[in-house]
């Protein structure tokens, strides 16, 4: 056995030196997943419906975009039924926030939307938005807020908006220097 391996090595080494192409034989292997139980027609139908629902949630879409004027009105007249969420990181938020906004960083948003209402409120200091409530996301320039809207949609939220101008637009229009 050792001699055979040495002989094969010598053949491959000679072929490599002579620039000849050597193709080792490959055996095709097929592996069947027999550990999965066979689904009944009813189970298969339910599984197909769940996958279709997931596909609908994950399809490409764009959150409706709100203007500065609309967000300004929302910040002046806050409501328990609507949320203005800043998805910037805490070190960015120290430069300021839109009045009446709350902070949930994008880096923790997905996991936070899966928390129980009590844990969410304990962590962030305000009630967790319900899936049908209006939620407006903003960040520094509008890119992360679009991602946040996508994350919220994939978590079942339906009334989602994006303030595309975000903090840079807000500070420009309010006459405050953007940081």
Which features would summarize this protein structure in a list?
179 residues, 5-stranded parallel sheet, 5 strands, Endoplasmic reticulum protein, Oxidized Rhodanese, domain 1, single chain, elongated, 10% strand, alpha/beta
Detailed description of the structure:
It comes from Auriscalpium vulgare. This is Endoplasmic reticulum protein. The chain has 8 helices and 5 strands. It has 179 residues and is an alpha/beta fold. Strands 1-5-4-2-3 form a 5-stranded parallel beta sheet. The mean pLDDT is 83.
Strand content: 5-15%
At the first level of CATH, the class of the domain at 65-174 is Alpha Beta
Number of helices: 8
Rg for CA atoms: 28 Å
- Global mean pLDDT: 83
Output the CATH topology of the domain at 65-174.
Oxidized Rhodanese, domain 1
Order of helices and strands: HHEHEHEHHEHEH
How would you name the CATH homologous superfamily of the domain at 65-174?
Rhodanese-like domain
Topology, element by element:
Layout: H1 2-17, H2 41-58, E1 65-66, H3 68-76, E2 82-86, H4 90-93, E3 102-103, H5 106-113, H6 117-124, E4 134-138, H7 143-154, E5 160-163, H8 166-174
Parallel strand pairs: 1-5, 2-3, 2-4, 4-5
Helix pairs in contact: 5-7
């Amino acid at each position: 056995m050792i001699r055979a391996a040495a002989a094969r090595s010598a053949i491959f080494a000679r072929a490599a030196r002579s620039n000849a192409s050597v193709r080792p034989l490959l055996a095709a292997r097929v592996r069947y997943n027999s550990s999965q139980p066979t689904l009944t027609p009813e189970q298969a139908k339910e599984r197909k419906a769940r996958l279709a629902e997931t596909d609908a949630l994950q399809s490409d879409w764009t959150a409706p975009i709100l203007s500065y004027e609309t967000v300004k009105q929302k910040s002046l007249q806050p409501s328990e039924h609507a949320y203005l969420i800043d998805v910037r990181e805490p070190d960015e938020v120290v430069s300021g926030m839109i009045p009446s906004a709350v902070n949930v960083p994008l880096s923790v948003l997905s996991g936070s939307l899966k928390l129980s209402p009590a844990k969410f409120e304990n962590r962030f200091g305000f009630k967790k938005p319900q899936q049908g409530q209006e939620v407006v996301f903003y960040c520094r320039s509008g890119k992360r807020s679009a991602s946040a809207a996508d994350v919220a949609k994939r978590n079942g939220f339906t009334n989602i908006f994006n303030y595309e101008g975000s903090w840079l637009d807000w500070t420009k229009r309010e006459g405050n220097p953007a940081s």
